[in-house]
């Protein structure tokens, strides 16, 4: 609803109360309404699901319309990210947030730092979604508050042109609330447990749930060894559980991202149920590493599969896990992906061991032969050594071209001595265009970095500690942090304003009028930052 329409509606409501509400200002109440556009997490989930669906359709028309996100482990981090995006680009279009289960485990568990093995409290996942949206909504409130103050100042000066300009900016205000793709790991239990957690995540505001095909109680980080997958039918129960959760809560456009870890998972905990040759269970079992046996040589406790009239013994480890044949990972990823899309998934996630466009595209080409509009969410993972990987890719390409590589040692290409080399420059250019090129060639709709703000927090803290506790002393903070905040227009340099002090002052004035005791007077030291950078 438009700003003036809100004011008019509230004036009528206040006037209908026979004078008992005359202490309420219609414009003040209208401002508070606009500053709280989203009443519930479900309002957010429905709004952001629509955005994602529109973005998916735009990508189908032109892969240049790919989307991006960064993983955020705290509401403030997510808030500052979106504020920064709006500041630098003027819009949040096609920019999302990612919620990483790894970072919840490492940073938000009551147990303290944990590995990414689903050992953290599952309730901490919806709690972080709610926290992220609380901070994004507060960013809306803060920015609108600044606009309302600018509007009041223009009116006080009688500047009609300025007043019109500010009113237009209020009417066209773009919210900081953007879609979150939220990691539900392997579902934290059986399908019922997955459904219950999915509901909590959706109620907190998640419009997109990412779920993986690992065993819940053996779940590993996608970039660690020892991953164990489940048969397709088991996984699809959880996919359906997520869809039921969306439908129950009225988020009909909810997005399900199905992740396959089969490329790096060489083990399964279960042999799939198969009723006839070629069915889904039989296809899953066909990848098992088996040896043909004679019934007379069967051992006590053997598990035997009958395939095409032959008796096969799957190789079973002392852990009671069964082993897949080496080299079947890509085939399993393709089958996983096609099966998921045929059973209600909206987007795919294939966890790879390196960022190589042709490797990803090779699998997507096969998937798209069956599902032409298949789209990927891809992890531009910090677990990859991007510099080394791309320098080696360039090295290999140059080697095929017959170029002179005598000045390079492929095994040592990470060395700083190569940083200014021609090979390094070409590798960096390939890194720079990786997302654009992969979106076009490999069907990647959404590029994300899972753990970037984990690393940036560590890096910036290291830089500050080195300077502040060293010879630079206080200059280490001033030159390395505050002066840069001022020069770059970082919103939280005025940290009192960022935390809501000015909003609180305006509320005091709404509630108490001239009797309000406000914090933002002439003696507020935050005024020192009012000068232009």
Which structural class should the secondary elements be placed in? alpha/beta
Treating each run of at least 4 consecutive H or I residues as one helix, how many helices? 19
Task: Report the uncertain regions.
Answer: none
Q: How many beta-strand elements?
A: 14
Q: Tell me roughly what share of residues is in helical segments.
A: 40-55%
The whole-angstrom Rg is 28 Å
Shape: globular
Q: What kind of sheet is the major sheet? A: 8 strands, parallel
Keywords summarizing the entry:
single chain, 48% helix, 8-stranded parallel β-sheet, 19 helices, 533 residues, globular, alpha/beta
Summarize the structure.
By secondary structure, the chain is an alpha/beta fold. It has helices spanning 3-15, 26-34, 41-61, 75-89, 101-107, 124-157, 160-171, 191-204, 232-248, 280-285, 329-341, 357-370, 386-401, 422-432, 434-441, 452-468, 474-488, 495-498, 501-512; strands at residues 67-71, 95-99, 180-183, 208-212, 228-229, 255-260, 267-268, 290-292, 305-307, 310-314, 322-323, 347-350, 376-379, 444-449. The protein contains 19 helices and 14 strands.
Question: Can you tell me about this structure?
Answer:
It is built from 19 helices and 14 strands. By secondary structure, the protein is an alpha/beta fold. It has an eight-stranded parallel sheet. The protein has a three-stranded mixed sheet with strand order 5-7-11, with no helix packed on it. Strands 8-10-9 form a three-stranded antiparallel sheet, with no helix packed on it. Helix 6 packs antiparallel against helix 7 and helix 8 runs parallel beside helix 9.
């Amino acid at each position: 609803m438009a700003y003036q329409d809100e004011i008019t509606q509230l004036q009528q409501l206040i006037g209908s109360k026979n004078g008992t509400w005359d202490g309420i200002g219609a414009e003040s109440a209208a401002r508070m309404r606009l500053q709280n556009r989203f009443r519930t997490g479900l309002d957010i989930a429905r709004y952001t699901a629509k955005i994602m669906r529109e973005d998916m359709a735009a990508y189908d028309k032109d892969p240049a319309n790919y989307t991006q996100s960064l993983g955020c482990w705290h509401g403030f981090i997510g808030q500052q990210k979106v504020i920064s995006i709006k500041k630098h680009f003027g819009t949040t279009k096609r920019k999302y947030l990612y919620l990483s289960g790894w970072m919840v485990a490492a940073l938000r568990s009551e147990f303290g730092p944990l590995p990414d093995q689903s050992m953290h409290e599952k309730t901490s996942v919806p709690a972080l979604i709610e926290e992220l949206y609380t901070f994004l909504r507060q960013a809306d409130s803060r920015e609108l508050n600044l606009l309302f103050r600018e509007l009041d100042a223009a009116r006080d000066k009688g500047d009609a042109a300025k007043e019109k300009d500010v009113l237009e900016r209020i009417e066209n205000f773009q919210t900081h609330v953007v879609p979150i793709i939220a990691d539900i790991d392997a579902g934290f239990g059986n399908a019922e447990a997955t459904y219950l957690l999915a509901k909590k995540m959706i109620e907190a505001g998640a419009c997109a749930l990412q779920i993986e095909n690992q065993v819940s109680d053996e779940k590993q980080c996608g970039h660690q060894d020892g991953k164990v997958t489940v048969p397709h039918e088991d996984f699809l129960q959880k996919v359906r559980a997520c869809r039921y959760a969306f439908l129950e809560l009225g988020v009909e456009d909810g997005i399900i991202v199905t992740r396959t870890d089969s490329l790096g998972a060489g083990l399964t905990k279960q042999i799939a149920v198969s009723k006839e040759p070629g069915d889904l269970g039989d296809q899953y079992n066909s990848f098992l590493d088996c040896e043909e046996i004679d019934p007379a040589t069967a051992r006590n406790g053997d598990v035997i599969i009958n395939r095409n009239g032959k008796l096969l013994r799957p190789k079973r480890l002392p852990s009671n896990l069964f082993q897949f044949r080496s080299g079947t990972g890509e085939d399993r990823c393709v089958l996983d992906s096609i099966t998921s899309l045929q059973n209600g998934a909206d987007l795919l996630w294939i966890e790879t061991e390196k960022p190589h466009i042709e490797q990803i595209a090779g699998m997507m080409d096969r998937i798209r032969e069956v599902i032409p509009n298949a789209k990927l969410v891809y992890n531009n993972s910090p677990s990859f050594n991007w510099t080394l990987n791309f320098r080696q890719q360039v090295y290999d390409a140059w080697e095929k071209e017959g170029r002179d590589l005598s000045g390079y040692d492929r095994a040592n290409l990470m060395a700083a001595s190569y940083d200014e080399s021609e090979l390094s420059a070409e590798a960096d250019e390939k890194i720079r265009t990786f997302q654009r090129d992969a979106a076009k060639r490999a069907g990647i709709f959404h590029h994300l970095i899972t753990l970037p703000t984990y690393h940036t927090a560590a890096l910036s803290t290291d830089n500050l500690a080195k300077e502040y506790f060293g010879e630079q002393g206080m200059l280490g903070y001033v030159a390395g942090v505050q002066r840069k905040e001022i020069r770059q227009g970082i919103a939280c340099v005025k940290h009192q304003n960022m935390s809501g002090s000015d909003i609180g002052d305006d509320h005091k004035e709404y509630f108490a009028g001239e009797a309000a005791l406000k914090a933002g007077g002439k003696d507020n030291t935050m005024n020192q930052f009012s000068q232009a950078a």
